[in-house]
Write a structure and sequence with these properties.
The complex is a heterodimer of chains A (607) and B (154). Chain A has 607 residues and is mainly beta. Chain A is 9% helix and 38% strand. Among the domains of chain A are: 162 residues, Cupredoxins -  blue copper proteins (Immunoglobulin-like), CATH 2.60.40; 168 residues, Immunoglobulin-like (Sandwich). In chain A, strands 25, 26, 28, 30, 31, 32 and 34 form a 7-stranded mixed beta sheet that branches. Chain A is globular and about 60 Å long. Classes of the chains: A mainly beta (607), B mainly beta (154).
Chain lengths: 607, 154
């Protein structure tokens, strides 16, 4: 069958369908907003501002309309630019010529990239209990494949400063917002004081451009964490506002000895030829599947390079800060073992052929480069070509490790070969085992409601949904996805007992209780896809998936819920306050997929 | 039937992404079965191979299978994971009436075949098929191969 014939039939079906939504016209081109003289637009992004935060609570704790904000009056770029499509996949004929129903936005619109300071290498900042860090979100120039772009950075670095602290330390972070959007800082995974969780409208007000906010950040658990904004993550996080925190245990043998430790932060950028695909200003675009980039970066760079010695054992702290992409990483057959995840070590180490990271997840993985050579760090997945109805293997090379002839010293080969068990983790988990088999205290169903999507999108989604992959590794339909805005797609956490959705769910538990939450990802919704569900301020165990008990437990704050799966989470509700539970696909969060868990203080009081 | 109603019908009959309905053959008209694909144990929750193939353990529930010998010189039923081009047959394990977890499949699209075999330890398929089904991923088809389009194609 000729593709042209098929296209013609598709056009006929779409055009002939009744009640077609009116075509969305491209918004008229506007002059770029120079933002000259706007707060936060000064080139010196290191000097703290003395301005007070604006007192304007967000109506939605995780989203923010940019209307009325300084610098938000003009389009930075026309929305009509072509978007990257998968190889061999044409744009759906019924969608050609349509554009998202938003005006466009890019960081620092109108700013000459050559006048913005270039990005700096990430520095490790070792802080002691009681120390203070100034953290400034500002504009930065990054050069990706030879082309300069204006993006965001913390302290001029992408990733931002790697904060390294001892377990139980408490530090002060003075946040200075010098970008062109309101912002906050969320300390992802930390069981800290609720006031400093960084959620606008719930724990604090947005920090307006030019304003400041001071956080007290406590680190109760060893592990790898990260910080990022909780306002328009689809823009701010995607454009560079993220950084790692590594919390060191006082136990000298907490991890096995290695020759080196490296933090690898994974992100993806969506660039067409030599331009960033603009973001939606009033609401997020790519609301169906999230914005999946076509250039993968490690620590902000598309071609990560590492040299290692023969036999060197490296401990990698992997963090996925992508808006939507789930990774399947491997190292060209280099042996790897997974040691820890979000908030603790596993009960025992495991050899793994690859490392799967959903957005916001972290894994601590050790690898030994036994032989000289070049080893590619790849993301290898089975993509889906929805148009042809076939799986399509994809391999993206994120970087290369070159291993030389000089042997590593000391030689940790024998320690690497052993798979350690961590009985202290098992002992910590033991006091929760009595709750593993109890009936869930709460049932949530994940689903979605479309609203005024283009008719062609609706028709094709229906046709295409004879099969849903448990995990969509790439954006197989970027044209439909791009056109969908967070005003047209409502992603839903639905409480089964009440039918209440998202922020209407009234969920209270007592501090100190152990809560079993069962989440079901409805495969029969309009567009099912996996959701990395993140709970703020607590820790949780994934005790079962689809009725199969987990045998090697680890404390988590983010867990992937594949399509059609039912996942049981056991929450250690130890930290009082109002805590977000949400999908960490940035565009799903913008599309309302969030609820609040109220952990009421022990000994009385309720919200 | 309107286009939208046709789409609704299609949506209703779709099974979940982990379910396989097994169909019998004329030799075993009373046999029935279903399979459930469960992600293999993985520290990441989602089990995949290094090249990204999903890794599933196959849970089988079958009933109505007669004694293998009633079909000929056969001693056991064996489950096979088979690629849709029939080129690769992976032995999953022996099957009896009731529920059991057999082996692991790591194909994109595949068929699940239960056959009577001459021995429980066979490593190559040879006997008659008694139950079979296709993976949910096999429903992933070219747009115009979808039933909705068949009615309007010339």
């Amino acid at each position: 069958m000729k593709r042209g014939w098929r296209n013609a039939l598709v056009v006929a079906l779409v055009v002939a369908a009744p009640n077609a939504a009116p075509a969305q016209k491209k918004p008229p081109a506007k002059k770029p907003d120079p933002m000259a003289g706007m707060p936060g637009m000064a080139h010196d992004t290191t000097k703290p501002s003395s301005k007070k935060p604006a007192v304007k609570p967000a109506s939605n704790p995780a989203s923010s309309t940019m209307a009325g904000m300084p610098g938000m009056k003009g389009d930075s770029m026309a929305m009509g630019m072509p978007i990257p499509m998968p190889k061999g996949m044409p744009m759906i004929p019924g969608l050609v010529g349509l554009t998202p129903q938003v005006s466009s936005f890019l960081p620092g619109a109108g700013v000459d990239p050559t006048k913005v300071a270039p990005v700096k290498p990430t520095q490790t900042v070792r802080l002691k209990d009681g120390d203070t860090l100034d953290l400034t979100a500002g504009l930065v120039r990054r050069t990706i494949r030879g082309k300069p772009f204006v993006m965001y950075a913390f302290n001029g670095m992408v990733p931002g400063p790697l904060i390294r602290v001892a377990q139980q330390a408490t530090i002060t972070v003075r946040f200075h917002n010098k970008i062109d959007l309101p912002s906050t800082v969320h300390w992802h995974g930390l069981r800290l004081d609720n006031r400093f969780d960084g959620v606008p409208g719930l724990t604090q007000q947005e920090v307006a451009p030019g304003a400041d906010f001071t956080y007290t950040v406590h680190f109760p658990d060893a592990g790898v964490y990260w910080y990022h904004p909780h306002v328009r993550e689809d823009i701010e996080q995607a454009m560079g506002l993220f950084g790692n925190m590594i919390v060191d245990s006082p136990e000298p043998d907490y991890y096995s000895p290695v020759n080196r430790e490296l933090s690898l932060v994974l992100n993806d950028l969506l660039i067409n030829a030599d331009s960033l695909i603009p973001f939606g200003k009033e609401s997020a675009t790519y609301a169906l599947m999230g914005r999946v980039g076509n250039i993968l970066t490690v620590n902000g760079e598309p071609n990560y390079k590492l040299t290692a010695r023969k036999g060197e054992v490296v401990r990698f702290f992997f963090t996925n800060v992508s808006s939507s992409r789930t990774y399947n990483l491997s190292l060209g057959g280099v042996p790897m073992k997974v040691v820890a995840s979000d908030e603790s070590r596993f009960e025992r180490e495991e050899r793994v052929p690859s490392v799967v990271l959903a957005p916001a997840e972290r894994y601590v993985v050790e690898a030994r480069f036994e032989k000289p050579g070049r080893y590619a760090l790849v993301n290898a997945i089975q993509a889906i070509n929805h148009y042809e109805g076939e799986f399509a293997p994809e391999v993206d090379t994120l970087g290369v490790v070159t291993v030389g002839d000089v042997p590593a010293s000391p030689d940790y080969g024998s320690r690497f070969a052993a798979l350690r068990a961590y009985p202290e983790v098992s002992r910590d988990v033991d006091r929760f085992r009595q709750y593993f088999d109890k009936e869930p205290d709460e049932h949530l169903t994940l689903t979605v409601k479309p609203n005024s999507l283009p008719l062609a999108t609706v028709q094709f989604m229906n046709v295409d949904t004879a099969y849903y992959a448990p995990v969509e590794w790439v954006d197989g339909m970027p044209d439909m996805n791009w056109l969908s805005t967070s005003k047209q797609v409502k992603w839903i956490l639905r409480e089964d007992a009440t039918g209440k959705e998202n922020m209407d769910i009234d969920w209270h538990v007592k501090q100190g209780s152990v809560v079993k939450l069962r989440i079901f990802n409805d495969p029969k919704s309009f567009h099912p896809m996996q959701h990395p569900i993140h709970l703020h301020g607590q820790r949780m165990l994934v005790v079962a998936r689809d009725g199969v008990k987990t045998r090697n437990l680890v404390w988590k704050d983010t867990a992937i819920i594949p399509v059609g799966s039912s996942v049981d989470l056991l929450i250690d509700a130890s930290n009082p306050g109002a805590w977000m539970l949400h999908c960490h696909i940035a565009e799903h969060l913008q599309s309302d997929m969030m609820a609040v868990l109220h952990v009421d203080p022990a000994g009385g009081g309720s919200h | 039937m309107s286009l939208s109603k046709a789409l609704a019908v299609i949506a209703v009959v779709v099974l979940g992404p982990y379910d396989i309905q097994l169909h019998n053959t004329p030799r075993t008209p009373n046999a029935h079965g279903a399979a459930r694909l469960v992600f293999a144990e993985s520290p990441f929750g989602v089990a995949v191979t290094a090249d990204g193939h999903a890794s599933y353990d196959v849970q089988l529930t079958v009933s109505g299978l007669p004694e293998p010998a009633t079909l000929g010189a056969y001693k056991a039923y064996v489950a096979w994971g088979v690629t849709t081009d029939l080129k690769q047959w992976r032995r999953l394990g022996t099957v009896a009436n009731g529920s059991s977890t057999v082996g692991r499949v790591e194909y994109n699209k595949f068929m699940l075949v239960i056959a009577a075999e001459s021995d429980s330890a066979v490593v190559k398929h040879a006997g008659p098929v008694v139950l079979s089904g296709t993976s949910p991923s096999s429903f992933l088809q070219m747009f115009l191969a979808h039933p909705m389009f068949r009615g309007v194609a010339p």
